[in-house]
């Protein structure tokens, strides 16, 4: 067996008599992206990322962009941009001190679907993708340790109306969010970093 499960998982699997099904589900885990995984990931307009700091304190964040903003760049590698945000760098700061991450790709419109990607991430400020990714100030590359589908049964049926007005798009300067002009923040907001505009 792989190391998909640890003692905590096994304790609860044994308590609820789910070890057998868990072992079968573990067979779905892989370390290389399939063509179907690639198509799903690269069509995503958002995903969720879980990180932890050096002491193991967790953080979870939403990342969004135009479909294609996440790319499968190798058999077990994916890449995504970091766009201008609130400047806290909670997720990426955690990656700098603890490379272990978990990504959840989820489709809540059309056919419900979920895909988990757990692995090791690195943040790059000199990545070649910076010169071809509109709005990127950094690039994150993740080497997958476990890629596996997840049951979609509780995903609500929602409609996708369109991208956020803040999503970087070629030849456009996205508007600044209103909160950056609030009195409590405006004197502390750093200037937006120059990025490739397409």
Shape verdict: globular
- Largest β-sheet summary: 7 strands, antiparallel
Q: What sequence of helices (H) and strands (E) makes up the elements? A: HHHEEEEHEEE
Instruction: Please state the second-level CATH architecture.
Output: Roll
Mean pLDDT reading: 93
Secondary-structure-derived class? alpha+beta
First-residue to last-residue Cα separation:
46 Å
**Helical amount:** 10-25%
Please report the first level of CATH classification, the CATH class. Mainly Beta
Q: How many individual domains?
A: 1
Q: Beta-strand level of the residues, as a percent range?
A: 25-35%
Segments where pLDDT lies below 50 for 5+ residues?
none
Over all CA atoms, what is the radius of gyration?
A: 18 Å
Quick description:
With 198 residues, the chain is an alpha+beta fold.
Keywords for this entry:
Pnp Oxidase, Chain A, alpha+beta, seven-stranded antiparallel β-sheet, single chain, 7 strands, 198 residues
Walkthrough of the structure:
By secondary structure, the protein is α+β, with helices and mostly antiparallel strands. It has a single domain, classed as Pnp Oxidase, Chain A, CATH 2.30.110.10. Helix content is 17%, strand content 29%. It has 4 helices and 7 strands. It has helices at 7-15, 19-26, 35-43, 90-97, and strands at 46-52, 58-64, 71-74, 77-82, 100-107, 113-124, 138-150. It has a 7-stranded antiparallel sheet with strand order 2-1-5-6-7-4-3. The protein starts with 6 loop residues before the first helix and ends in a 48-residue tail after the last strand.
């Amino acid at each position: 067996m792989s190391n998909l499960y640890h003692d905590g998982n096994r304790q609860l699997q044994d308590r609820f008599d789910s070890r057998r099904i868990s072992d079968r589900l573990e067979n779905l885990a892989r370390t290389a992206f399939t063509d179907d995984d690639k198509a799903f990931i690269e069509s995503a307009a958002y995903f969720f990322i879980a990180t932890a700091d050096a002491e193991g304190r967790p953080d979870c964040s939403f990342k969004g962009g135009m479909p294609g903003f996440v790319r499968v760049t190798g058999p077990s590698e994916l890449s995504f941009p970091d766009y201008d945000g609130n400047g806290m760098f909670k997720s990426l700061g955690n990656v700098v001190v603890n490379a272990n991450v978990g990504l959840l790709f989820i489709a809540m419109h059309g056919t419900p679907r979920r895909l988990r990607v757990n692995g090791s991430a690195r943040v790059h400020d000199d990545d070649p993708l910076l010169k071809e990714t509109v709005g990127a100030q950094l690039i994150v590359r993740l080497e997958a340790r476990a890629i596996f589908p997840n049951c979609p049964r509780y995903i609500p049926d929602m409609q996708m109306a369109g991208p956020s007005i803040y999503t970087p798009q070629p030849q456009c300067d996205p508007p600044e969010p209103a909160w950056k002009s609030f009195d409590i923040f405006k004197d502390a907001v750093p200037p937006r970093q120059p990025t490739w505009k397409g």
